[in-house]
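S1.2 Input.
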Amino acid sequence: MNDAQFLKLLDYFSFSWAGYRKVRKGVKKRIARHMDELGCRDMDVYIQRLEIDPQFRLYCERLLTVPISRFLRDRRLWEILPDKILPLFFDKKSLSVWSAGCSGGEEVYSLKIIWEMLRETYPDFSDLNVTACDLNLENLERAQKGIYQPSSLKTVDLALIDRFFEKGPTRKSLAVKSYLKKGITWETFNLLHDPPPSKAYDIIFLRNNILTYAAEDLKLAGFNSVISALADPGILIIGAKEHLPEGVTGFESIGLPYVFQKNL
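S1.3 Output.
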């Protein structure tokens, strides 16, 4: 599959070439395998098959997800969370968080680790309830198992690994300890098309997904849908290299240029 053919598929889904440019190699391989399975040698024929069968279209859209993550990604974020962000919610009985596009669960368990450490200093701190959503079922299954290779933990201190992980089922793998899985609800969810959960979240992680991979018109619609589930005043966290869609107002950066508080 050449880039022109891949671009045609991205245009069909209203996805961004700029977002996929550096990661397209692996994605193209997955799409090419699906095309072979369906007997489609031409991108136009493949897109026609997607149009005819919604299940094939959904499967293709899942193949286009890019599950690149690791624990404590963007280290500065995880340093300011316990110092400047989570203390804003000390007076709440229950802290509600949405990981919108949770990939393989590294972000969710990173949050649980930070929260467990904060509870040592503030034992009466809120209960934590996390809704973790992803379009890709394989990502969710991996996240629920909580088993990772050392490459996912390369930015995690050895002391934290010893405390929060145990030996996994294979020689080098590590598994999160079972108590970190409590309070997490895992759900399949399409950020661009599904209506957001009805509850208002205190914190939404919307990192390195629709703001990177969706085209501008779809990006704004998806973003507005997601933030409609954010409480007032809630915290929105996007990727370190991402920006809010043009024209979005009502947010003020707090602590870092990619962490925002929703204005009342």
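S1.4 Remarks. The mean pLDDT is 93.
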